[in-house]
Write the structure tokens for this entry.
Amino acid sequence: MTFQGWLLIAVFTGILLALVKPIGLWLFALYEGRRTPLHVLLGPVERGFYRLSGIDPDEDQSWRRYAVHMLIFNAALMLLTYAVLRAQALLPLNPLGFGAVSEHLAFNTAISFGANTNWQSYAGESTMSNLSQMLGLTIHNFLSAATGIALAFALFRGFARRSATGIGNFWADVTRVTLYLLLPLSIVLAVFYIASGVPQTLAGSVDIATLEGAKQTLALGPVASQEAIKMLGTNGGGFFNANSAHPFENPTALTDLVQMLSIFAIGVGLTYCFGKAVGNTRQGWAILAAMMTLFLAGTTIAYWQEAAGNPVLHGLGLPGGNMEGKEVRFGIAASSLFSVITTAASCGAVNAMHDSFTALGGMIPLFNMQLGEVVIGGVGAGIYGFLLFAILAVFVAGLMVGRTPEYVGKKIESREVKLSVLAIAVLPLCILGMSAVASIIPAGLAGPLNKGPHGFSEILYAFTSAVANNGSAFAGLTANTPFYNGMLGVAMWIGRFFIIIPMLAVAGGLAAKKHTPESAGSFPTTGLLWTGLLIGIVLIVGGLTFLPSLALGPIADHLAMIRGQLF
Amino acid sequence: MARNSQASSKSLFTAELIVPAIGDAFRKLNPKELIRNPVMFTTAVVALLLTVLLVVGQDGLGIGFKLQLVIWLWLTVLFGTFAEALAEGRGKAQAASLRATKAELTAKRVKGAIDSGVVEDVPASALRKDDVVLVQTGDLIPSDGEVIAGVASVNEAAITGESAPVIREAGGDRSAVTAGTRVISDEIRVKVTVNPGQGFLDRMIALVEGAERQKTPNEIALTLLLVGLTIIFLIAVGTIPAFATYAGGSIPVSILAALLITLIPTTIAALLSAIGIAGMDRLVRFNVLAKSGRAVEAAGDIDVLLLDKTGTITIGDRQATEFRPVGGIDVRELAEAALLASLADETPEGRSIVVLAREKFGLDLAALPAGAEVIPFTAQTRISGVDTGGRVVQKGAVQAILKANPGAGSTAAATELRRITDEIARAGGTPLAVAVDGTLLGAIFLKDIVKAGIRERFGELRAMGIRTVMITGDNPLTASSIAAEAGVDDFLAEATPEDKLALIRKEQQGGRLVAMCGDGTNDAPALAQADVGVAMNTGTQAAREAGNMVDLDSDPTKLIEVVGLGKQLLMTRGALTTFSVANDVAKYFAIIPAMFVALYPGLGVLNVMGLGTPESAILSAIIFNALIIPLLVPLALKGVKYKPMGAGPLLARNLAIYGLGGLLAPFLGIKLIDLAVNGIGLA
């Protein structure tokens, strides 16, 4: 570990914390439906959308209606993507003349992008045409992210409203978030990336002569624009297979820092927005404190493990940290930090190959996802997932102050407990259940490239990444097969929508409740004690479940490495 | 409270209670009853499965080891049913003595007109609503009812445990009588208000026995959480065989079962219903009957307490403390007149005037002069006094005296009197004016005496986040002074029953939960509206029906303790849940290495406790998991220690004890058990 490495982590954390309030306030304006400075320009566009589609943005939707509209919208978009990918050969903007995407891959990819996962069973530069990238995939990068943020707004309203029947309007939320937040920020970021050397062209490729005089074909495309929203919306689906390790996606140290910041930016802003929504910003800071503690602990372990390197190689006279699978441009600190950020935030973009991390260094990204992507988490999804944990934490410990548990003025009763447990149980059920199936049937066993516990980690990582809607790959798993494309597709679908539905039901129920004013007898949900309790519950309820599987995967892998056995 | 906790600690673990509870523990293994507790049901199913596998299974584990596992699993289930049986046992003993009271009841039913002298002897069970019975000296009252004629002193010890007799009379707020209580003087006619089986005694028997016990809202939510955790751990354990197959090995079913049972929250699940029953029982021992568990929970949630001033905040009777003459009258003359007017006044206030006059001014007038005629107090005149023939001495409310003596109203003395009146009211007192032959002499300062220590109690309540509102019929000036002296947060002066109801509604609209106590029929709507309404047992039947608790001692101050008991119940549940969940960390570290060490020997390093062998590690974890239940039974039955304080410090304290303690205790416990298991060669 180096001073520079820690400095990077400190600088990143510092800038991030400075972003919390401004982004949070901007989000709060959108949450409330207030005018922003951008309304002068985009207001007519917004109203035009409503008029075209016959939507009344002021209609207050019940949670059921909100859920149904959200589902229809997302299902329609996924069908569109499926159709575009299947018909790719017949459509324009296909300079390299790629053929149709296979059925199972198109199925997997449509769900993957629709569920804000961006798991990629394919290499983009050799599979997807420019139209597929721009229409089929980038559209989800915006709208699945906007859906996530809208859903978070819906849950916030559940906490904030009193004796209300509705939790907002899905169409208005999605439109506003896309128009006033994602689009303008993406444009700014895209321009920055272009200035930094990221390609933005409709040309398919360029041929260059290498120093040795050989001809090399470099794939190009509208990379910068996709890069911006890929990070901002915690999507993570790269234009190129190498993702942010590719110099065309992530050319400089500065773009690397900006990419890391843009992954977390909206997620941290939403914690502040939550505090504003419930009328006490300390509530938001308490959640952020718990998230950041988990994040920095993970970063420390990953960086320490990667910097410590592989004792087997040390024994062979190759000292130093673990550089396998890392870009020399970024090095150990930036790669470790990026890996923790991208898995903490359900982004899934990578600037290094997680499969090549040391066993414990690679376990942190895995564990981050198994916690349910609640450490900052995906845009919207992170905070609503975390709030479900908060509900459980309040319920488990809240009784200890001798009152029916309350959280930000809402009584937490059997309905909330039931639905929160239901949503949280989806994660272990799918991750462990599907990994179990894949680790005993031949079609599943054909996937991993490595043997032993490392091979098991590859399977476990794939399903964890899919269910948690992260989308990063451990690599080392041959996933473009009917079995994996199918199973992972289902996993991503369940991991997204089977949590959303109970979560919206919680929002609807909470909105209908009366507000209980805070008093000296109320359970304190700000301050260190609460932050510690949240961390404890996230680790015990969210994390302990995976201990047996982690023991058989990365932990066994690590212990074998210490004894000089590699897989 | 002190009396209560002493009583419970003494009677917790006597042989009379424990022996039948052991029998009941086995009876409760009945699947129909067990399924009410899904976590314990799961444990029983797993125990049964392992019992069967003991006979037919082949998995390479020693039969001695497997037998021990099976025994400890069954013990886990039995400890749970035992805890519940023990909690119920205390109630059952009480119910038995109540039943004995009920068995011997016979009634003298009045035939024909209500005041008819013709009665017939019938068993109490034959009485129906609206029957009228005659109860004479020495008789037990056969049914709950309303006194419609007569007045009697009644010994209610059978219900309240208090042997001092109480007065029951027709009309007013003391007309309700309870079956099983004994008339010790005079006779009354009672109109039966309930059908057999629905009386107070029946309800009390059902309550203390736990027969009517239904899960309370928080209990239901908690059960759902426990079921959810059980499902999550079922998944975690159920997928292990597949992972082990991948790793090229297999895990015996008994070991998986052991891991599952240690992980699912058996501790809190086993004690959950015992906690609830014990909570109700504590209330009963405290002589408060809650009509439902829901009411007890609501008591813990209370935000606002409405307390009647008289009897709760002040001692019931006002005391005369000062004479304030007007118009240059000698204070001694005023004292003399006041004494004269009060000699026949048997109210505590009247007596206090006599005492003050005698002690302060040495007046020794012992009896009224011959021929003097007493002017009795009436609600219309609000004046009492004496007419000695020559002189008319009047004493009464200031307004009433001025009204009765129109001539005095405009004098300088009247102006002075009004000023003094205001002064007295501001000081929290009640003024009484004295006039002789239409001349104002001055005022008597009647002071409300705030109960000792009540201010501190309200301070505690405030720390707990509970607002206290004093309800009084006094004028706002007097009320605010007493409120300030007693340290209540707010007051409602010149309160009518409607005002009370409106106040409760207003607080509830703001999302607050309100508790109050009351006794009169006109309190009934407010009692019904309040989230916790404690009716005084001396009160009317209407009030007793409207409230969701009845205080058998009729002590309004108890409302404060009832809130404490509600909080204690919730805290006990929360503390044991947290403890149970926190325990899981250590159990993982005991069993995971033991389970997987054969697959990957390196995983031995996870054995941080340094447990002897894989078998002893598993056995120790399961033994700890079983033994912790009986060890926590006393805590579950007595409730966690409760001190009034704010939620912040309370959480910090309980989280340190039950959260951190729950995290660390099993590491120590499992290690110790492992040492013992290895020491005596069990595994």
In short: Chain B is about 55% helix and 15% strand. The radius of gyration of chain B is 33 Å. Chain B touches chain A through 75 residues (CB under 8 Å). Residues 110 and 119 of chain B are 4 Å apart (CA to CA).
